[in-house]
Write a structure and sequence with these properties.
Blueprint (H helix, E strand, L loop, with lengths): L19 H18 L20 E7 L2 E7 L7 H14 L15 E8 L3 E2 L5 H7 L6 E6 L2 E5 L10 H11 L12 E5 L1 E4 L1
Antiparallel strand pairs: 1-2, 1-3, 3-8, 4-7, 5-6, 5-7
Helix pairs in contact: 1-2
């Protein structure tokens, strides 16, 4: 099998739960590799399950004592999932600009979570109300692009912002847009994630 096997359409709806332990080990090993060598790990793709060679996009979130400690991810499927998880685990630990690089003394207190994205689906709308009516709280992640401005919220953000209006306003702020900004020419995509483990 090619190392860059394109994912079949049905694979996006097939659960990765059977590979949760393997993906989590890749993330954990990626962090340990970063602590030891100061650079991302490149996993041996011939040694991973075929499903993890499919091109997929994922986010890796780190938490320490329940608090966010880093989160880095990909929005487009441009590399094998195993590689994406390993690289993003390193990024979450050492390159999230909101936090200092992870130190060895913190390592045992940090827990990983992986969210694998579905293929983003463009939303059609002419009004802000029409856009908000399409959102499914708790399920939809959103990607907003307006010119050079871009921002995304994973579905887990609904836990903090359960109302569509608030979710949408905060996403615009994340993209460095005014909270009341609206342009029917902006691009909005939604996606779902599978959370592992």
């Amino acid at each position: 099998m090619s190392r860059n096997t394109p994912v079949a359409e049905k694979s996006h709806s097939d659960s990765l739960r059977a590979h949760a332990d393997e993906l989590l080990e890749l993330a954990e090993t990626g962090i340990d590799h970063g602590l030891a060598r100061g650079q991302p790990m490149e996993p041996d793709l011939d040694a991973v399950s075929p499903r993890l060679r499919e091109q997929r996009a994922a986010f890796v979130t780190l938490r320490r004592d329940g608090d966010l400690r880093g989160c880095i991810g990909s929005l487009e499927a441009r590399r094998p999932l195993a590689l994406d998880v390993a690289i993003n685990a390193f990024g979450a630990a050492f390159r999230d600009p909101r936090f200092p690089p992870l130190e060895a003394a913190e390592r045992d207190a940090v827990a990983c979570k992986i969210e694998v994205l579905s293929v983003p689906e463009p939303l059609s709308f002419t009004t802000e109300a029409g856009l908000l009516d399409q959102l499914v709280p708790g399920r939809d992640g959103l990607l907003l692009e307006a010119g050079s401005r871009k921002g995304t919220f994973l579905p887990t953000v609904w836990d903090q912002l359960p109302e569509p209006e608030a979710f949408w306003r905060h996403l615009k702020r994340k993209a460095n847009l005014p909270a009341d900004y609206f342009d029917p020419a902006m691009r909005v995509h939604r996606y779902t994630t599978e959370i592992l483990p």
